User: Fold this.
Amino acid sequence: MADRSTAAVDVADNSGEQSLTAEADQSTADGVANNRERDTDSDEAQGGTGATAAGKASPPELHSGHKLARRYRLEECVTRLDGFSSWRAVDEKLRRAVGVHLLPADHSRARSVLAAARSSALLGDPRFVQVLDAVEENDLVYVVHEWLPDATELTTLLASGPLEVYEAYQMVSQVSAAMAAAHREGLAHLRLNPNAVLRTSTGQWRIRGLAVNAALRGISSDTPQRTDTESIGALLYAALTQRWPYESDAYGLSGLPKDIGLIAPDQVRAGVHRGLSELAMRALVNDGATASRHESPCTTPEELVKAISEMPRIRPPEPAFTAPSDYQRTTYQQGTYGRQAPRPGVTQAVPAPPPPLQSRTGKALKWAVSALLIAALGLGSWQLADALMDRGKSDGTNGTQTTDGDDKGSKGTRPAKPLTVEGAQEYVAKGEAQAPADVANTYDGDDSTYWRTKRYNEGPTLAPYKPGVGIVYDLGSAKNISAASLGLRYAGDNTTVRLYATDALSPSTGIDGMKEIGTATTSGTSLTVKVPKAVKTQFVLLWITAVPSAPADGYSSAGYKQAITDVQFKG
Assistant:
């Protein structure tokens, strides 16, 4: 198989690229350990990839302290392999640490490396380590990229054991979504291994070496989407089991026992999450494995993203609760904050309470205060009653509240209460999905996370590109719905949202077969869709048919697009 040769390279290979920014020299000691390339490629391992054919060009004679473009000062060579070298360097102009790949301009891969670096730089997706510069100068080709001193390679994380379930889920979700976005722009990685995936100090996962790592080593694939999908499956397998899913050891991980084939992660280690185990097998099926429980294989990162969105959401672990005995003994809880601590063996005097007001003046003062309180309470009650009566008269109801519509009477309107979302799934009526892996961001209670649409050239109406885009929400059981409130990322033009009652997370009918229960339009960053008549349903489709014109950001250029930060249904 075309993919197997590439997989063989990655199995024998134990390398990574460096990555991301630091505060110049200060970050060196901390950053090198996590960003160092540990390359052990051999000519035999490169067989079939075109790697050996290009290795004859000798690397330039460079040393620490050498400057490129009078700006990038080389500090430490971390890889020297097959005609190219990789360095930790300092950008003296911006005073930050960077990584640099260097190779002779006459190297047979020089042109492809430059092309790969420039294509990667155009993507501009913050989930990837960014290419900062790609230059041919003085018989040298060099690629400058970010350096991440606060990030840790997956290789290092797995050295101490498999990842926790939630961490593994976040890793595969974020990496799959990032690679799906890259492939939509025609970019592949082809060397996606534990050294190329990093977790930052904020818990975000970053990918380094997009297109460039493969170009440096002359790796190509006839089926790049399958290759990257299988690599993601291998990453998830390793994260769950602390084992590499092939017979050869790699990246500091032991391979599987020989002659038993590829077995599911939950058969390798007890307690592995079944859903994630199945997901890994569905991605690894591209290498000839059999999916563990009859699911269809995932052959592209986009399919993997969809499979993740169909899984029950894995929530972060609950924070540890501190037992009362741990904090009740503190001086603050005991009411002694700011007081001198008692010395052992010394009897402490109990402070006497202040004497009561026994004099005639004191008694008079107490009676005066009581009278004032009684008068204030009486006045407040009278004013409140008078206000309520006036309000009832102005409404023409003589103080009796009625519900909207024809249902009038003496009963008051019940206040709306928030409804809990148990799950959600993106609904695709035509064409490609938008961002299925981010659906849960719309009801996670965090307004800094969101689900976003793609960018469209014309608008605000999505048609004829699409009839609409949206998400189906599961409320757990049939519930009365009175409204839905949305937080939006982009303001401007007209954002139009419709609500439909439907029969399942994957509806059995198209939009025409669903019941529309409400619609609203806004030009701001919040929107409330009211349901005029009471509707009882378990599944609600939130359907966007028009989006505003929004500026460029880290995910896409300027165009017609929208993103939902929060959704709350009320009943």
The chain has twelve helices and 21 strands.
